[in-house]
## 1
Amino acid sequence: MANLLVTGGAGFIGGNFVHYWAKAHPGDSIVVLDCLTYAGNRSTIAGVEQAELVVGDIRDTALVEKLLAEHSISTLVHFAAESHVDRSISGPDAFIDTNILGTNSLLKAARKVWLDTGSGTPHRFHHISTDEVFGSLGPHDPAFSETTAYAPNSPYSASKAASDHLVRAYHHTFGLEVTTTNCSNNYGPYQYPEKLIPLFLLNALHGRNLPIYGDGMNVRDWLHVEDHCRGIEAALARGKPGETYNIGGGEELPNMAVIDRICAEVDRAFAEIDGLAQRFPDAPAAKGRPTAELKTFVTDRAGHDRRYAIDETKARAELGYVPAHDFESGLAGTLRWYLDNEAWWRPLVRA
Ligand code: NAD
């Protein structure tokens, strides 16, 4: 039995992790610390009996110390962040505040409770980071490995890179037992509909344009969120303190291929599932037309990284991590989840 503190557990990946962990470790108890920004949603974890939501800010160091001590937390899994690159371009400050100062606050609290007061209580601080800290790859460059030099290009990735360095420094300087995973683009249930896959799925259902940045040929690796959760679980079980591990989905795809697959899946769903045309009458597919007619090219994101690719050899060899989902069936399952859970996303999209 263990007691976990999960920051950002009402967000997309953190929420999926809470569901995953509760099912896989029914004897454990989970405290979720989340301040419920626009991206946090208490309904994401409402049904998980083992999880208690504390609405609070990771920058509140005293609150974090209190939670660690009072709940005898041995494992802290840190997801909380400002996570959307476009928002970091229009307003970087929140990214510096939450991602850098927030991570520092957690590290300070963990150091005090686990090392100073607790005299070295067995513990683990696991930090969730991104492949974006490594910068942008050319078409023939080798994939990012754990030893690739950091070269973050957006305010988002720069703030995550800074937090990664702080986590590393707390291990090196103070002996805090930390691990970090750098993952690729996640997709799956409970993702806020500003990110590519849920945005395009829901736009397609409502007959709204599918806005494609630039030429649509930016490349990303796609990781099903459940595989990511399994990777984190493996890092907690078998990761070595001080180490970092890349977690990928083994699915490197240009955005256009992702978008074409979304269009094909939506068309297929309307052909196969009764009643969808009545529920979503504005969808082209409801009128027998291809969803692809909604594709629209828009001005590229400023500083848009061209390609990310992830080499997860170390996680496979040292953690036994192997992604289980292929993109095609993972995407079909994700669409199905959004169709079956309209009550979750309806309040988040414009009428
Ligand atoms: P998200 O935006 O869906 O959720 C973030 C959560 O953090 C929200 O519930 C929000 O309310 C909470 N939060 C934000 N600021 C907070 C604060 N100051 N105090 C307490 N809670 C706060 O993000 P996500 O997509 O689930 O990403 C989770 C983590 O994974 C982030 O650290 C992100 O950088 C990283 N990551 C995400 C992806 C991806 O594809 N989504 C890829 C790589 C890495």
## 2
Amino acid sequence: MTDRNIRSILIVGGGTAGWMTAATLSRILGPDYAKITLVESDEIGIIGVGEATIPQMATFNRMLGLDEDQFVRETKGSFKLGIQFVNWGRAGHRYFHPFGKYGLDMKGVSFHAYYLRLRQLGEAPDVDEWSLQAMAARDDKFMRAIDAGNSPLSDIAYAYHFDAGLYAKFLRRYAEDKGVTRREGKIVDVKLRSEDGFVQSVQLEDGSHLEADLFIDCSGFRGLIIEQALKAGYTDWSQYLPCNRAIAVPCASVDAWTPYTRSTAHTAGWQWRIPLQHRIGNGHVFCSDYMSDDEATAILMSNLDGEPLADPRTVPFKTGHRNRMWVKNCVAMGLSGGFLEPLESTSIWLIQSGLSRFLTMFPDRDFNQADIDRYNRIMQTDYEEIRDFLVLHYHATERTDSPFWDYCRTMEIPERLAEKMRVFRTHGRAFRENEELFNDTSWFAVMLGQLMEPASHDPVADVMPLAETRERLAHIREAIANSADYMPKHRDFIREHCAA
Ligand code: FAD
């Protein structure tokens, strides 16, 4: 230890971001490096709507050393193989964005190229048939990968749905066991040091002050320190992602436990459906320029599977991010850093990536500005890349049935996305750019799913004789169908391994 090391850390907020931060720092730094305190207000509570995730969440759980069955049991969670999109390309149309890859490795040429070659000859059915995740989801099936050689069953990518309130409690127990101190109380003021504007302490309603070397702002949309005290500023992306409100309501479960999130487009936004063990989470994300709260609520309530279990709750938001997520001795994690709407369940991943990037740039008390600048630049790129993927869903649509969709279809889009779309439209090529979150399978699934039809296929696919291409793709398709048949029902799998 040097005498410039961080000695105390104050995490402000106890939602998903606050407790993920507390769990991570207590795990990685251990009990003796720095004193870690988390302060949260029971009166304010948490947003409690982040319930769907992506496969990278398993990496986070592994880093913490969590037992997956226990995690699913205690959060009354379920498994997720992808997202079903309904009414997005056009009313009545649906497609599946699966986790994992389509097909198998095809000796250096992407599977997508061979698939498109057959599709353009009118010989290939729905691309879902080459995704084990999509085929299992069709039949409400789920299992974890097993050691089965070349079988598709050896590689099953999945994520989770969970109850956000239970997740915060679960991580709280974990972090407290590792020495994190929790303080209940409402912060009413933030004190900055007069000499350099660094955060000195926060003041609670009862008059006490909490000091620290490092502050992690997990206070949610309000950005208590990062914005209200440090004035980080906000980049507003409403021109690309115009939805700005959500109405959320849980409802009773139904018999089939679907192992996927469903996103159903409506006339001014879309509705999520997230199945948990004890209820289904639902919400209608919409743009208030095109729809009133009453209308959005009525649409939501008339599209539930079961009885509502609570009154609908409205959550206003603005998509975008803080201009700087790390300012002086304060880093924003979670909603205090920014928000991209939950269409591809990326917010919890952004907390995860924020934490892992922060740990690679962990400061001492000198707070090197070059490290801070690098962190801010990388996080901004993460946000921009995800933004572009989300915008694709809205922009590549044939819907002409409402002013909202007219706006989305004709809006100006970021140049990086425009280029990806041009490249796909010619030869059907989809790429993962640098280290961006979504890979070529995701781009391919959503571009094709949103009814973008390439003019031609990648000419490299012609290296394989047509008869051989047909034979290989038929073989893979059959292996996937057999594997999906073999899998148990999602509900049975949960009952056997991780029922609450
Ligand atoms: P919050 O949950 O709001 O927590 C803020 C904390 O700060 C609370 O503990 C609060 O008490 C505390 N606090 C605030 N002010 C004070 C104060 N003055 N004094 C003391 N304590 C204070 N993400 C996904 O990954 N998947 C999804 O499916 C998904 N769906 C979403 C749907 C909607 C409509 C929205 C809005 C978000 C969704 N998200 C989703 C995002 C996800 O909910 C958040 O990223 C996640 O919950 C983290 O929230 P948070 O901890 O930053 O904020």
